[in-house]
């Protein structure tokens, strides 16, 4: 509580310095945190680290001209100098008719979101987590090496305050553990990984379970073949399926829409996905990986279906892009929060049951996605599907299509898990082009 009051006091002092320097309005963003991490490989600790960070930023407006400045330390003695620099920059840049620091209501009680695990686990606990994950992977017969296991923890305070009277701050914590196993020898080696992250240590997956799963996944990838070129139905594992939500978020971001640089620029109110598909942003999900009581402009958020029954219902907007488009902010300054696709009714096994020949993709490589046209082409690895069952591992091929067509053909399974902040269940997309042998 003492640290809370100290940070709030420093933010208010910085705002006063900005006003004294000649700013009409100003906002301060400030964060302070502590992190610990450990890296272990083949039973030996390779690296341990403890770090403390302090960051602050100031944005000022002189009329309709604005400028921002940042620093990697919080030094009240430097506030006046930094504020003067920011105001001097604002006075020489062109006006921006759309930018502003908006009014914001008092923030909700962040404790209701339960984002903070105040108990620091300590280095011994992190070492034990990494050891459990790696030892479980190495114990699986056929595993020949390890790229190691890691465990980490952090706790930080996020603060935003404006000269218009808004002040909000919340703490959040993070626990993470991961392991990467190697199977096979020589040029026939294959690797795979698994990980778990959560705001509370109690919500982490058992490190030994994820270590064994990483090992089993690496073994399953041994001796891959290159599939034949063709047009096939493709299933995407949840760990890569979320990437499609990332492409959607970029395509319906208000800044891209205002610039007319999105393949969905004319799609508002239209069916983009099949009926029944819902894609939600929920910043108020309790213990959510990206939950927040307010966005980077202090605006409150709420659960919103950007895709409802397959239809695009809204752009993702901050204040500036909303002003450009003649709309209101959706409380998404800084991007989406807990962004996810609701699950379907069928299990992954049921979703692939009628596929005579297809693909199950577990890894995507490269970033061959054109946000203007929607053209999609990425390297991939995974498994063939034959007669509704997973078959031989495959690698060194490319899958391609157009996101507009892919979104329309997409079908979700029922295995949604909230693990990454942007989450989707297993997805099936028919009619994708595969470029292989």
Short description:
This protein has helices spanning 2-21, 79-90, 122-138, 207-220, 238-251, 254-259, 319-325, 348-352, 403-409, and strands at 25-41, 44-62, 65-71, 143-162, 167-183, 190-198, 230-236, 279-281, 304-308, 311-312, 339-341, 357-365, 375-386, 389-402, 411-412, 422-423, 427-435. By secondary structure, the chain is of the alpha+beta class. It has two domains: 2-220, PmbA/TldD superfamily (PmbA/TldD fold); 230-243 and 343-435, no CATH class.
Total domain modules: 2
One letter per element, helices H and strands E, the order comes to HEEEHHEEEHEHHEEEHEHEEEHEEE
What amount of the residues lies in strands?
A: 35-45%
CATH architecture of the largest domain: 2-Layer Sandwich
Strand ordering within the main sheet: 3-2-1-4-5-6
Helix content: 10-25%
- The global form is globular
The description of the largest β-sheet is:
6 strands, antiparallel
Span between termini: 62 Å
Structural class: alpha+beta
Determine Rg (CA atoms, Å).
Answer: 24 Å
Mean pLDDT: 96
**CATH-assigned homologous superfamily of the largest domain:** PmbA/TldD superfamily
Q: Would you tell me which CATH topology of the largest domain applies?
A: PmbA/TldD fold
Q: How many DSSP-defined strands? A: 17
Number of helices, where a helix is a run of at least 4 consecutive DSSP H or I residues: 9
Q: pLDDT below 50 for ≥5 consecutive residues: which ranges?
A: none
- What is the level 1 CATH name of the largest domain? Alpha Beta
């Amino acid at each position: 509580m003492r640290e809370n009051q100290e940070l709030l006091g420093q933010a208010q002092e910085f705002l006063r310095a900005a006003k004294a320097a000649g700013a009409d309005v100003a906002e301060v963003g400030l964060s302070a945190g502590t992190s610990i991490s450990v890296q272990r490989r083949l039973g030996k600790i390779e690296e341990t680290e403890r770090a403390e960070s302090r960051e602050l930023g100031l944005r000022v407006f002189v009329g309709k001209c604005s400028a921002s400045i940042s620093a990697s330390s919080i030094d009240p003695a430097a506030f006046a100098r930094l504020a003067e620099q920011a105001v001097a920059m604002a006075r020489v840049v062109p006006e921006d008719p759309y930018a502003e620091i908006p009014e914001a209501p008092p923030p909700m009680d962040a404790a209701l979101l339960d984002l903070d695990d105040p108990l620091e686990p300590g280095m011994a606990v992190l070492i034990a987590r990494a050891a459990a994950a790696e030892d479980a992977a190495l114990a699986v017969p056929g595993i020949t090496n390890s790229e190691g296991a890691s465990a980490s923890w952090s706790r930080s305070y996020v603060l935003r305050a404006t000269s218009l009277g808004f002040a909000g701050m919340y703490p959040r914590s993070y626990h993470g553990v991961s392991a990467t196993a190697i199977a096979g020898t020589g040029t026939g080696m294959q690797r795979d990984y698994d990980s778990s992250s959560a705001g509370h240590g109690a919500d982490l997956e058992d490190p030994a379970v994820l270590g064994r799963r990483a090992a089993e996944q690496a073994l399953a990838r041994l001796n891959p073949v290159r599939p034949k070129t063709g047009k096939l139905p493709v299933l995407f594992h949840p760990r890569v399926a979320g990437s499609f939500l990332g492409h959607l978020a970029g395509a319906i971001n208000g800044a891209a829409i205002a610039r007319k640089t999105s393949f969905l620029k004319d799609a508002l109110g239209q069916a983009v996905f099949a009926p029944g598909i819902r894609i939600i942003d929920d910043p108020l999900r309790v213990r959510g990986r990206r939950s927040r009581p307010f966005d980077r402009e202090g605006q409150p958020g709420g659960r919103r279906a950007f895709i409802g029954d397959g239809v695009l219902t809204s752009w993702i907007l901050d204040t500036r892009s909303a002003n450009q488009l003649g709309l209101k902010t959706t409380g998404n300054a800084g991007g989406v929060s807990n962004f996810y696709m609701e699950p379907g009714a069928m299990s992954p096994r049921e979703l692939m049951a009628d596929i005579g020949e297809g693909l199950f993709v577990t890894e995507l490589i490269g970033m061959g996605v054109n946000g203007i046209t929607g053209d999609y082409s990425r390297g991939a690895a995974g498994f063939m599907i034959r007669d509704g069952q997973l078959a031989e591992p495959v690698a060194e091929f490319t899958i391609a299509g157009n996101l507009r067509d892919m979104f329309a053909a997409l079908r979700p399974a029922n295995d949604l898990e909230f693990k990454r902040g942007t989450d989707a269940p297993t997805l099936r997309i028919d009619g994708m082009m595969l470029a292989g042998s």
